[in-house]
Amino acid sequence: MTSLPITTTPYPPVAPAAPVAEKQSGALAAVSNNALVSALKDTYSAFQARREALGLTNPGTVENVAKEVQRDVFLNNLSFSGLRADLTKAFSVSPLFQVSHAFSQGSQQIPPYAFLALYGTNKVFCQGNLDSDLSLSARFNYRWTPRWVTKTTTQIQAASMAGPGGAQFSLENDYVGDDFTAQIKAMNPSVLDGPLTGIFIGSYLQSITPRLALGLEAVYQRPAAQMGPEAMISYAAKYKGEDWIASAQLMPSGGVQGSYWRRLSAQLETGVDLNLQFAGNPMMGGMRKEGVATLGAKYDFRASSFRAQVDTAGKLGVLLEKRIVPMVQITFAGELDHVKNAAKVGLAVSIEAAEEEVMAQQESAMAAGPVTPPF
Questions:
Q1: Across the chain, what does the average pLDDT equal?
Q2: Which of 55, 214, 215, 317 has the most beta carbons within 10 angstroms of its beta carbon?
Q3: pTM (2 decimals)?
Q4: Domain range for 92
């Protein structure tokens, strides 16, 4: 039996597959060599170069566009009535950890007792407050990057004689650029009833020149599913002088708020705030104008600080903070309402206790300069 010869036909050699990394780099090179992409990159680079050449600084936020007047000079968040005693215990400075006990008597706005604890680092800040009325408030902030911060706030108000109580939750994201600040905030967001409900706020403040900053704030709200949505936009402007700052806001309702802050000396600061509200329908001849002007001043002594303000509504308020010793501070607050013929007086004592090691850290930090909180 004769066997037939077996012949084999060789297959052509197969070229090795190109590595994935080489394919990706080739695709990126093709995109970078695209004329349109190159033109956009050059335009953006030229815009950034001109932007940096202006020497613009961060203008702050729309929410705090008048911070120098309303928070640094006026008594809006500092005035109180009755007797208060605050005992604070600091366990460490870095990271910051301390607890506080607050006792109050004779005030309808402040509960008789409140316990507060806070913890803070360069990335995390936690604060909780529980009072004798079983009302709870908590805040948690997290810094993702040096520019991006997420802030959450939760408040649970127990039912009492002052009201039925309730709960509130807010989520906020802040991005701080070299010459702008953008904020997005949501209050009580929910989709359980079908449509999206809650209050949503977006704001943007941009430095136009080294002295002038312009911004806007948009508000979208829908309190309940049965109610229709509403949208509003307000505008803000801020101008910085050598030793003065002027700001203005145009409200959605047509109202105007203007503030002017000036430093007269190293110890003395003054501020003026004007709030004008316009209500009614001008077509029907029912336009009503209301306005309140407030004048305030703050003077810093060596170991004390004095604030005073008066407005056109007939209110006069004063606040004196006196540090007796490094760990003890006394605060006196008084308010006189000429229109209502009423007066309020408040006296508070604050005592801070700390370990010797913590006190040494605080003294060294004070010697190095003013400490800026992480948030």
A1: 84
A2: 215
A3: 0.79
A4: 62-279+289-368
